Amino acid sequence: MLEKEEQLLRKRISELAAVCYQRDIRTNTGFLNLNEQAIFHSMERSLPPVPTVLYGGFDTAERKIVCFLPSYGQDTERFPVDRLEIAPVNARFSEELTHRDFLGAVMGLGVDRSCIGDIAMTEAGCVLFCLEQMTGFLISELKSVRRTAVCCRKAPGLAGFSQSYEEVGGSVSSPRLDSLVSLVFRLSRAKALAFISGEKTFINGRLAVSAGQRLAGGEIVSVRGLGKFCYVGAGNETRKGRVFVTARRYT
Asked: What are phi and psi of 47, to 5 degrees?
């Protein structure tokens, strides 16, 4: 992120936290990517003492809004996020559409990226998470993706969505971050280390600072340019002292 953009983000976060504290009302940022979330975490202790939640619409969301919460409640149903379902009008004549195609169609409408959260592919098309202020506009204006006519509708609530995944298993010397990244993404140890040292790896939205960090189980690991996975945990040891581990790589 450019220095000026980072300064503006820090200022905006500080202002929103201050408004929540002074007026006792909920405030929130737009959707932040992983680097922007890391900036929020770096300044968290210096902000006014109000509860905060990072929320993206579902448990494994990568892009999230930061919500500053008032003293009178933390009801997630009041978070300003909607889930939209986008699918071809006629699946038989649809092109093979990708995540990039759906994102490009939305950006082509002039929508700011901070208004859009994760886009998850489904068998029918995709689901898209957005700030509720954009819902009506997208339903009205998003009529095609590439040359395929699509229908965009609001899903009835946020509950019940889960991202599809592929289960990955294997043996590692220990459940270190570099070993798990190497296993899940089928990389050499050196390439896995490069993604970590290059500040492209995040654990539960926080920048990973050590390749040797041991994971306990349940962590969401995101690697920019590769994807994300949930480390499920370790099982039995082999005769040579290696450990069987399992992870869910999200597709």
From this structure: -85, 160
Backbone φ and ψ for 237, nearest 5 degrees, come out as: -95, 150
* 165-169, 208-212, 240-244: least confident range: 240-244
- Residue 97 sits in a domain of what CATH number? 3.30.70.330
Q: What percent of the chain has pLDDT over 90?
A: 84
Rounded CA-CA distance 57/249 in Å is: 19
Q: How far is CA 189 from CA 4, 11, 123, 172, 185, in A?
A: 35, 39, 34, 11, 11
Picking from 154, 183, 200, the residue at the C-terminal end of a domain is: 154
Residue 161: what pLDDT? 83
Confidence of residue 77 (pLDDT cuts 50, 70, 90): low
Pick the closest to residue 31 from 93, 103, 98 (CA basis): 103
Q: With residue 38 as reference, give the H or E element that holds it.
A: helix 34-43
Kindly report the length of the chain: 251
